[in-house]
């Protein structure tokens, strides 16, 4: 299911990814993560299956252990957060430690900083010119401070706009799988009414993920039924059966979503 | 830092928690998690430190392994998702497997269901009356289908309103630590300008977590500086120093937040 190959050339092997959101602020509830969904959507588009996400504090041992566990278990690992100029920004040096390499100051980035920041740059600013030896820098238009990749680990900023820019820069160079397609229908009903018939559809299409997500819409119970997988024909067929199931029940379909 | 005691009586030991969000839909990007922040805020209020969150797919082996890893590492574990009546709702039986116990059908819950649902109840509905042997049910006003705790693991629904209700029901019975207090200031500035002085404040208060979170507000760079910890006097003092730091810089303070 997963591969430990850091430079993947998979054809038959499924491509998988893990996300590590680094930051005490998310675990304290003071900041809501705004990055996972964006990464998840991009992985879906390029046919890489996002298998897990871990949200961890800004602590060296935890970061190093988590990076090493996940980089050996997945094709790609994406981290967000902790690469700025303050004392709690320790992600870069944790990545160096995880890979057992030294940190160097990148002369080209220093030059860019001198031009961009001029006199406003402090010693702290220049910390963002430091990278693990062997890192490939990820330049982006939003900021002169690059992200970087190290092996199969992509290290990005926590600020959503910058993270998105960095991921968009990195994505063209990732190995692509078969795009993961989904058809979903949301209807005013409850799960108990659809669960037997829905499970029957799952049995007919074992290669797909069929999921049911209860919610409240306009203060009424509603359910979103999703068929998802790399077999696009099967997704369309299963989606049709879901629609028929809901129509036969007399459940009002209030939304349909086809991705990508 | 963590305790493996499932029935905690900690005075000196720090109380810690982990959250497991169970659901393919979050990892596919089709549903945004709306539960973590609520749990994080409640833990902060009762002085339990949320140390990590894992988002994992609806897969038995992954759920069982994750539950067993985290319940041995933390005072409390909270799971959300996967306890409804559809085939992808496998959390309950994974918890039973993780604890090595059988599943039973709770007669009292069956009676409640008969009254509440009447003829609308199907076999699938009654699956929500099944629990691991030894579970303590968590009743709540939003739904007749209970959540449950098993040892130090609290198993809750994925629908935010129901999850919140279940957590609020469970919270009074949790062991409380010293409340975690935070003072934070958001100002129009950039991290490079504050990082040296901010690190100095961290050195003066090693018992606190001082965090810096860059953001964009009204399309201008802003930074939120947070002092956080169980030593309330130190938080107030560090907060004052943060405010002075920003004022001395001439950075406009646009928000202040004191919790709880």
Task: Name a few traits of the molecule.
homodimer; 260 residues; alpha/beta; Alpha-Beta Plaits; 9 helices; 27% strand; elongated; disordered N terminus
Query: How many domains would you count in the coordinates of chain A?
Result: 2
Task: Give the CATH architecture of the largest domain in chain A.
Answer: 3-Layer(aba) Sandwich
Q: What name does CATH use for the topology of the largest domain in chain A?
A: Molybdenum Cofactor Biosythetic Enzyme, Chain A
Strand order of the largest sheet of chain A: 2-1-3-8-7-6
Instruction: Specify the structural class of chain A.
Output: alpha/beta
Residue-averaged pLDDT of chain A:
92
Largest sheet of chain A: 6 strands, mixed
The number of E-state strands of chain A comes to 12
**Most residues in contact, chain pair and counts:** A-B, 71 and 71 residues
How much of the sequence lies in strands of chain A comes to 25-35%
Summarize this entry quickly:
2 copies of one chain form a homodimer. Chain A has 260 residues and is of the alpha/beta class.
Structure description:
2 copies of one chain form a homodimer. Chain A has 260 residues and is an alpha/beta fold. Chain A has 2 domains: 158 residues, MoaB/Mog-like domain (Molybdenum Cofactor Biosythetic Enzyme, Chain A); 79 residues, Alpha-Beta Plaits. Helix content of chain A is 36%, strand content 27%. The first copy, chain A, contains 9 helices and 12 strands. A 6-stranded mixed β-sheet of chain A has the order 2-1-3-8-7-6, sandwiched between helices. A 4-stranded antiparallel β-sheet of chain A has the order 10-11-9-12, covered by helices on one side. In chain A, helix 3 crosses helix 4. Chain A is elongated. Chains A and B meet through helix 1, helix 2, strand 2, helix 6 and helix 8 of A and helix 1, helix 2, strand 2, helix 6 and helix 8 of B. Strand 2 of chain A pairs antiparallel with strand 2 of chain B.
């Amino acid at each position: 299911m997963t591969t430990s190959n850091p430079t993947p050339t998979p054809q038959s092997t499924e491509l998988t990814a893990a996300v590590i959101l680094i930051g005490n602020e998310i675990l304290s509830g003071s900041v809501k993560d705004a990055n996972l969904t964006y990464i998840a959507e991009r992985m879906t588009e390029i046919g890489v299956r996002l298998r897990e996400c871990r949200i961890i504090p800004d602590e060296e041992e935890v970061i190093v252990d988590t990076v090493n566990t996940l980089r050996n278990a997945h094709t790609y690992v994406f981290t967000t957060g902790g690469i700025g100029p303050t004392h709690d920004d320790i992600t870069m040096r944790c990545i160096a430690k995880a890979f057992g390499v030294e940190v160097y100051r990148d002369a080209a980035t220093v030059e860019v900083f001198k031009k961009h920041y001029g006199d406003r740059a402090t010693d702290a600013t220049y910390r963002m010119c430091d990278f693990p030896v062997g890192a490939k820098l990820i330049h982006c238009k939003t900021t002169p401070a690059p992200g970087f990749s190290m092996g199969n680990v992509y290290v990005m900023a926590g600020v959503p706009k910058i993270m998105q820019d960095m991921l968009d820069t990195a994505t063209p160079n990732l190995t692509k799988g078969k795009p993961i397609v989904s058809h979903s229908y949301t209807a005013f009903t409850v799960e108990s009414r659809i669960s037997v018939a829905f499970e029957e559809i799952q049995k007919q299409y074992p290669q797909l993920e069929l999921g049911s997500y209860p919610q409240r819409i306009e203060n009424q119970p509603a359910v979103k039924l999703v068929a998802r997988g790399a077999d696009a024909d099967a997704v369309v067929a299963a989606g049709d059966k879901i629609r028929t199931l809901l129509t036969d029940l007399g459940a009002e379909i209030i939304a349909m979503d086809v991705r990508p």
